[in-house]
Q: What sequence folds into this?
């Protein structure tokens, strides 16, 4: 039993690595994408719409395969073994950035136009107005859908198996096959649940910290 | 001294002529009331004066400085690089001019995530780089003037509509503008709350603040304004001394409009 748990724990570490790195990269990337998505420049806007539709319209599993094998099969680039985890982080980050971009866009567009106008008349530049006035209000509004995405992300880390990355679910399956028992899969399930319970708890606390105004 | 002047201002929105050749000016210490029915272009006029909208043709001055000139029958803004709205919004010259005026909105537009005090203090500190202690002192003075000194640490959502509008007026005042525009400041308030906001504006008028007030409160306009403009279908149908324009209008159209308020 201890052997099972240590193996799954090593997989959990690998899963958490994907999880945290994806969050760190996809949230700011999503913000940048959303600003391109709302750009009045038709070309920039059109390209962003197209990219987001591809990212949301094809399976993440397929995207991971493309990021991992693409450089070699398309461009003939030889990559070292660390490319495996790098390609996974890139694939996840860009895919999640697409979803975050649309959530952020909805959040920004839901803020009354009067907030932008008041900031403009008071003499704030657009950048300062965005950072100080629009962004904090946007964050409050997007927390519930962002929590949804983060929870999905934890479970999606299992997709990294497709490029033979030893994340938690892969490890659980291996142990299950070796020991001919289904217990490891349940243990893995419990881990996912506990992680998500913590995520939901933390996000709720963050939401509460914004509840002093409406 | 002339604070604001606009000449031959024309603006059409979606092919509709909203403003058709508007000219007027506001002198220091003067209170100008702009009246007229809905859709007559009052709000658009204030939005043009505060750069929330841009006129098609016409000229504009602030403190004698020409901000908008007519180039081949088309408005050209100071420091303007190209004709796009986007470049006008980023125009540094225009942003500088913004410190000459303040605008009080119909629906307040306070920043909900900031306390009352921060709402009043932030622009002078962030935009004008003023000293934080001086700004705090001044902000508290204005809040006291508004009767809101004990609400400084509250958030806008904890205030009544009338209190919110008074905070918005304090916010505008704290930047020490040369002229303050009011866009129907009491239209979102019930009669009881309306009177507390009007009282504040009356006091400002007594102090000889330069103000332009778009309003549907005719009695208020009559009592507080020096001059009045009656806007109808994008033109100035009648203008003159506020008291006589409102109590004794000359033009038929003005009479008809004012009649509705007497009923």
A:
């Amino acid at each position: 039993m201890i052997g099972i748990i240590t193996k799954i724990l090593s997989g959990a570490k690998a899963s958490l690595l994907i999880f945290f790195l994806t969050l760190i990269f996809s949230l700011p990337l999503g913000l940048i994408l959303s600003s391109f998505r709302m750009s009045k420049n038709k070309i920039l806007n059109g390209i962003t719409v197209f990219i987001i539709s591809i990212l949301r319209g094809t399976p993440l599993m397929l995207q991971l395969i493309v990021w991992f094998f693409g450089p070699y099969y398309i461009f003939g680039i030889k990559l070292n073994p660390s490319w495996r985890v790098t390609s996974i982080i890139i694939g996840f980050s860009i895919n999640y950035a697409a979803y975050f971009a649309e959530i952020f866009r909805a959040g920004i567009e839901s803020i009354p136009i009067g907030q932008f106008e008041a900031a403009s008349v008071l003499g704030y530049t657009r950048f300062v107005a965005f950072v100080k006035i629009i962004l904090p209000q946007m964050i409050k509004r997007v927390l519930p859908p962002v929590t949804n995405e983060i929870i999905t992300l934890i479970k999606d880390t299992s997709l990294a198996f497709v490029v033979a990355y030893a994340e938690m679910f892969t490890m659980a399956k291996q142990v299950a096959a070796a020991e001919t028992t289904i217990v490891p899969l349940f243990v893995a399930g419990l881990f996912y649940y506990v992680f998500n319970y913590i995520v939901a708890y933390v996000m709720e606390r963050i939401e509460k910290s914004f509840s002093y105004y409406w | 001294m002339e604070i604001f002047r606009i000449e031959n201002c024309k603006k059409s929105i979606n092919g509709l002529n909203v403003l058709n050749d508007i000219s007027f000016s506001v002198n220091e210490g003067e209170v100008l009331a702009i009246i007229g029915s809905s859709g007559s272009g009052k709000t658009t006029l204030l939005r043009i004066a505060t750069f929330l909208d841009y006129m098609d043709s016409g000229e504009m001055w602030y403190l004698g400085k020409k901000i908008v000139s007519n180039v081949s029958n088309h408005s050209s803004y100071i420091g303007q690089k190209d004709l796009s709205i986007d470049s006008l919004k980023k125009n540094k010259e225009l942003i500088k001019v913004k410190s000459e005026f303040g605008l009080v909105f119909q629906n307040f537009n306070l920043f909900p995530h900031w306390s009352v005090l921060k709402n009043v203090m932030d622009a002078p500190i962030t935009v004008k780089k003023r000293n934080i202690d001086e700004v705090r002192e001044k902000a508290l003075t204005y809040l006291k003037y508004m009767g809101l000194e004990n609400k400084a640490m509250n958030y806008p959502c904890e205030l009544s509509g009338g209190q919110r509008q008074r905070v918005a007026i304090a916010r505008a005042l704290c930047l020490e503008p040369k002229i303050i525009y009011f866009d129907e400041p009491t239209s979102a308030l019930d009669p009881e709350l309306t009177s507390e906001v009007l009282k504040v504006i009356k006091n400002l008028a007594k102090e000889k603040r330069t103000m332009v007030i778009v309003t549907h409160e005719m009695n208020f306009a009559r009592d507080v304004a020096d001059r009045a403009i009656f806007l109808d279908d994008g033109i100035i149908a009648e203008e003159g001394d506020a008291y006589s324009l409102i109590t004794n209008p000359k033009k038929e159209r003005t009479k008809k409009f004012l009649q509705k308020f007497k009923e």
